[in-house]
Prior knowledge:
446 residues; alpha+beta; Beta Polymerase, domain 2; cca-adding enzyme, domain 2; 2 domains; eight-stranded mixed β-sheet; two-stranded antiparallel ribbon; 12 strands; 48% helix; disordered C terminus; binds adenosine-5'-triphosphate; binds magnesium ion
Amino acid sequence: MSHHSDRPLPSVKHDVIERGDHGISRKQISPNALRVLYRLKDGGFDAYLVGGAVRDLLIGGAPKDFDVATNATPEEVKHLFRNCRLIGRRFRLAHVMFGREIIEVATFRANSDDGSGDREMEGGRLVRDNVYGSIEEDAVRRDFTANALYYNIEDFSVRDFVGGYEDVRHRVLRLIGEPEDRYREDPVRMLRAVRLASKLDFRIDVAAAEPIPRLAGLLNESSSARLFDESLKLFMAGHAEASWLGLETHGLLPALFPDSSAALRADETGGLRRLLLTALRNTDARIREDRPVTPAFLFAALLWPAYAAELASLEAGGLEVHLAQQRAADRVVMHQVQRIALPRRFSIPMQEIWMLQARFPDRRRKRVFRLLSHPRFRAAYDFLELRQQAEPELADEVAFWRDAQELSGDQLSARLGPPRSGGGDPQPSRKRRRRRRRKPASESSE
Ligand code: ATP
Ligand code: MG
């Protein structure tokens, strides 16, 4: 295959790690992935398990998905499988579906262009990349050497063209090729370096780490939808705290969370950072315990420093409190979604968690009962507990609301003192309370 390239290809070695020398057994591979590999092989094609799955199996982890690479074109793959869909524009791929499991089958791709293939660059970045190539070419266009290992279904060996096997053994993430070029080509690789290092407990090779703080700003040009996906992988996959610390170490926070990151730098007490780290640690613990986590709560914490700063400045400008809250929340979201496309189904409940914080100081009986029955009370209360990390003076408030949830209606009612408008019913229905209300004008917060 003829090709020209504007930079030298990294030296391609041909290491074969024989079956029995690498410790990967077919028992660890998803039966559906094995089915796909065998069907391709029986159809006369090359078929390899590739990428994260091979890397994870080598370090004894459980891969979250199994990707297959082959010399069959997507159309040829489609002919072999009934349950197959072709997807993607930037990368054309075949998805073979087995109920809920999808095996992704990609044709070997080249990182070089002889003009015959379907490839498009815009300002140094790849927007379409459908030039097919050899397995060696497929290996060197991947990001890290550890992600460029191929498990061959033909003889169960692992093929390594870039020294990835040794790098996995030493637990190091090394970029293939010239790091700066590779980051310019796709800035999200900087986030992948931090994410994979946190997830796998690998270190980032010096040459791969060095350019990151300098090039972090390039993330502004990556798609905000892709950055949202990547941020869920950073923070909702059980290693949020390590990811955050990695982003901080490598100077990536200002690019991802400009306002929060500025507010954190301005916070001399370190309370806001403590709040955030606690939130991330709690998220990790919940995932370990198989409890649900929501991006709304996570982003409420990630963007709280920005919100608190904006609110303080609006209030200092003399804006009425309730209005200031609403405006601060809107501004933070409006600004942040330019970087990370947080969908409204998460940003709205996130703002609600912030708004509810303002209602905790109000201990009037009706307000207490009403807040307790708010559908987002629990999330808001959990957030109040978090805020205690930054504002120790909230201890009383936290204690009050913790108890309030546990007391019976009667007990809580007794604690709140005698009711204003008589009647022993401690938790009257909403309707009745509405009808009885005497001074609606004084209840201005709803
Ligand atoms: P994870 O365990 O989080 O899925 P992964 O390495 O499998 O990690 P994927 O996003 O599933 O990550 O990507 C699969 C493979 O595709 C990677 O192992 C790598 O070889 C290649 N790849 C993914 N993203 C890039 C990228 N931005 N640049 C180059 N190669 C990439
Ligand atoms: Mg993967």
